[in-house]
Amino acid sequence: MGSLRVSASRDSCVTSSLCVYRLPQVFDQDAEGRVVVVDEEPPDELRRELLRARRGCPTRSIRVEGPGVGDDEDGGGAQ
Amino acid sequence: MSSSCPVGYPLPWAPAPDIPESWTTLREQPLLEIKLPSGEPAFLVTWYKDVRRLFADERLSRNTFGRASRVSASNDLFGDPNIDNDPPRYLTERAVVMRAFSARRIEALREVVRRIVEELLDAMEAGPRPAELMEAFAYPLPILVICHMLGVPPQDRPKFRRLIDGFLSVTRLPVDEVEECRRQYWDYLTELIDSKRAEPGDDLISELIEISREDPARLTDYQLQHWVKTLLIAGYVTTASQLGTSMAVLLHRPEATAELKADLSLVPSAVEELLRYQMMGTSLGTLRYAVEDIELLDGTTVIPKGSTVLLSQESNMDSEEFDDPLTLDIRRTDNHHLTFGAGIHFCAGAALARMELQEATEALLRRFPGLRLAVPGEELKRPVGGFLAGYAEIPVSW
Asked: Can you give the pLDDT at residue B70?
């Protein structure tokens, strides 16, 4: 527990809602529809889905840190 | 770069609801010279990784009016000299609209969509067999949903559809008729927005009017009208075509259909796979203009400054990204397809479209367990001269 750290860029979010549907226990949206991380240190069993959420984000607005999570393979994270 | 003749675009379809095998070899040329329906030149970017990256690259401008090649000689569909589709202006406007498409707002609409789906399927069930799926279900569903969201009165819907269909003609109608539809459509929207100003309702147009009233700098009247126009078009034909072709692709594969019917919890991943496998789209909607030279990931190919570029939807078949890309796998998990684009122009209505497709697919299979194509897949007719491919008619029986 607690080895993963998740953050997301509200500024580059375009409200695709992909992360919210994939992991509602980690991601939510504010009244304008922009991403909000509700669990910044999610349990390790969510690792795989977190990496999918990061990869799927159309503006690369999700950052996942921790042992063994690597960089987003296509690079070019949101600014 | 190849010096061979430019390839006519859109690329030819397979006769049946299948993806042509040739799409998997498109990546042999990272940048393909193509000829648009207008006869004007453009480039098609073919690698998934390039497409994904370039969707987010500001050197490719969406402000194409008057400088890029045109999609169609008789239709300036994406051209509006009064609208700047590049940041920062675009982002400000988009942010205003996006609140209506958050997951919470879309989920609040799910019950409405379910009700519309059930009503349409009641009518289909009571009608003759075979039924024609586009007319009975695929066209009415999204237009009823978007009309509900925007607050378009029911009596206006037939007129509405006629004008949108005309406006979206690429080669089917002559220039003056397309122009006439566009003008009447714009006039209709002006009236609709005026009526909402006078009498606001619980709908998206009224919500946008309120925002532009509070802070006119965020959304001018013209921009308000432009967005409403765009949302209506984008919410209608795309979803209808996708729903129709999804069902055609699925029903053409009885084993996949049986697998899905046996376990309806697979509907979301099946819908995603059918989106990847989409047969309705072309890449014409991704038209962009290169404001600088842009190098591709192969390290040698360069998109020359000043060229017109399409980011290929066909890269959903790139074998570097998708295992066994020509196989429809309704359980596919790592499916980051590009059917809704990527970057700041990612389809605003994606979550709405997904939800409609899920509800529609689930209800069709649940209510009509014997659902099947009433003609061989090879005989399904494609529409003539529209913006989207899809199918003109999909006869089904059960």
From this structure: 87
